[in-house]
Amino acid sequence: MKITLVNPNSSRAVTEAMVAIARSVAPGVTVQGVTIPDAPPTILNPDALDAAAIRVAALAPSLAGAVIVAGFGDPGLMELRAAGLSHATGLAEASIAEAAALAPRFAVVTTTPQLVGRIDLAAQRASHDGYAGTWVTPGDPQQLMSDASALTDALLAACQRACAEAERDGALGAIIIGGGPLAVAARTISADAPVPLIEPVPAAVRRLLATAHTDGIPG
């Protein structure tokens, strides 16, 4: 089985980090990464997400088998499926499904405040009533993501805040760390988080492996 991980931003370092995480989840699976060079280094708002969808969709003729759209807004995922790539998933789709299966109530923690509305829509499309909302780290996302230590501290603090603020409507049972570029930080803080963390890249790999087990995926 082969998985192609498509990073909708232009950071090769982020692509390599996500590919390494995907390979660690499925050691017997070939995982290759694709970076879109003319994309922005980070997707920060709905306009950038929509532009990313066009770029990802344009890759459809060159893709085959299993595909992960490795941006949390799943840009271009529906277009890839419409082009015949039925064994494709996105970070939001996979992690929301995994969180909903794990816990009655779950939340998302991310760094991009302008994308909260799109995250809400992704949860609504998935029809999971357990979605409690999205909590965002303070400050400038790009500046925060440039400092690994500050990023992990901010994400962990946001997880703790989400648990405390959501408590009045029922305890959270899981938190999704929402963002491809946050994959390494999510892994770093997982042992210290107040509830189980859903890491989107491993969740996407597991979703594809489950699909391969039931349906088979052409290579």
TrEMBL record:
Keyword entries, A-Z: Isomerase
Which enzyme class? isomerase
Q: Which InterPro entries match?
A: Asp/Glu/hydantoin_racemase, Hydantoin_racemase-like, Iso_Racemase_Enz_sf
Q: What is its EC number?
A: 5.1.99.-
One of the entry's Gene Ontology molecular-function terms is: amino-acid racemase activity
Top-level taxon of the source organism: Bacteria
Q: Which PANTHER family match?
A: PROTEIN DCG1 (PTHR28047:SF5)
The Swiss-Prot or TrEMBL record describes its family as follows:
Belongs to the HyuE racemase family.
Name of the molecule in the record: Hydrogenase expression protein HupH
Source organism per entry reads: Antarctobacter heliothermus
